TrEMBL record:
SMART domains: IG. This is ICOSL protein. The gene is Icoslg. GO terms for cellular component: external side of plasma membrane. InterPro entries: BTN3A2-like_Ig-C, Ig-like_dom, Ig-like_dom_sf, Ig-like_fold, Ig_sub, Ig_V-set, IgSF_BTN/MOG.
Amino acid sequence: FPHTSPFFPSLSFSLVVLAAQEIIVSKPGDNATLSCIYRGRELHLNNLRVYWQKADGQEDCSVVHALISGQDNESEQCIHFKNRTQLFWDRLESGDFSLLLLNVSQSDVRTYKCVVMQKTEYTKMIHQSEVVLSLAASYSQPILSGPIRNSDSTEEEVTFSCRSGNGYPEPNVYWINKTDNSHLPPSELKITPHADGTYSVFSTLKVKATSNMQIECSVENKILQENLSANYTQQKQSNGSSTESHKNLGKKGRGAQAAGIVSVIILIGLLTVLTCWLWRRRSSNQVSYTGNE
Ligand SMILES: *[C@@H]1O[C@H](CO)[C@@H](O)[C@H](O)[C@H]1NC(C)=O
Ligand SMILES: *[C@@H]1O[C@H](CO)[C@@H](O)[C@H](O)[C@H]1NC(C)=O
Ligand SMILES: *[C@@H]1O[C@H](CO)[C@@H](O)[C@H](O)[C@H]1NC(C)=O
Ligand SMILES: *[C@@H]1O[C@H](CO)[C@@H](O)[C@H](O)[C@H]1NC(C)=O
Ligand SMILES: *[C@@H]1O[C@H](CO)[C@@H](O)[C@H](O)[C@H]1NC(C)=O
Ligand SMILES: *[C@@H]1O[C@H](CO)[C@@H](O)[C@H](O)[C@H]1NC(C)=O
Ligand SMILES: *[C@@H]1O[C@H](CO)[C@@H](O)[C@H](O)[C@H]1NC(C)=O
Ligand SMILES: *[C@@H]1O[C@H](CO)[C@@H](O)[C@H](O)[C@H]1NC(C)=O
């Protein structure tokens, strides 16, 4: 090993230059794994110092987690990260210095830096990489209910309501008149934060009842660039034939048509066989008959 050590510094230098930045998207309240993997030669934990720190650290405290001579060292760890970080002990010797950060919240959103130093004759940085932690969570499929007729209004006014949850960050809610794709102003919008950092949303829409109402509620997550929507399409009344049953009829109609064609083909086939058989029987009878004559 001392033999090769003169070459080691130059090798480690090129690895340092190739440092990459990774983005981790986590849900508030979840545990996030910030990855830091060194693919170099075999390591001896006792010679290593691993520092996880704030990359943009102009604050007083920058140490997120420290491993010194094979032991976690909490002496300089920021209070914000106390009892919330752990390394994967079974993976350290293979060069995996990823950090598990428990119960992440908005205050953890930042860029982190992993620095690995090796102490042989002198201390040398052998690896560094950066991880960006951001928070986001998809909203649940919105549930649209209504219309409910408002008894107290003189006009025929109805209320729709829409709810969704378990998302992050705060959503935008859009009510859309699907007839002309115009936006309708909500009459109520309630966004509720939960203990785990996620939000739920409840919104209502009051409109004058018209025939053929087509209403959509859409919940937008700006970070994930995601819109989830739920529809209401008025079924035509009493005159029967709603749009839905039209579609079903269409499918059934096509099915029946296909079945009809198949049975006609089978029938023709059967008739052909029967005709052939009858014809052959008749002609053989004729032959025997003429033979007898
Ligand atoms: C996060 O990790 C802790 C400790 O390992 C565990 O108790 C907790 O259930 C985990 N939380 C989630 C959301 O996985
Ligand atoms: C932590 O590191 C400091 C020096 O940075 C050292 O004085 C202290 O003994 C270490 N503590 C433990 C528990 O290893
Ligand atoms: C960390 O955990 C220890 C023991 O479990 C506890 O005494 C200490 O108060 C905790 N520190 C913080 C900042 O939560
Ligand atoms: C997670 O952190 C939040 C504050 O960010 C706290 O209110 C909550 O109690 C923590 N949950 C757990 C399981 O430690
Ligand atoms: C939706 O748009 C159509 C066409 O512009 C309009 O006739 C109808 O009244 C609108 N419905 C609502 C609930 O605003
Ligand atoms: C979500 O829908 C709204 C309303 O239709 C639209 O303004 C917005 O651009 C959509 N966002 C995405 C990410 O598609
Ligand atoms: C809403 O209706 C459109 C077409 O009118 C359809 O493509 C979409 O899947 C529907 N969304 C839901 C959630 O039913
Ligand atoms: C049923 O349809 C007829 C004409 O197609 C229309 O005059 C009548 O108002 C409809 N009734 C209802 C309840 O929609």
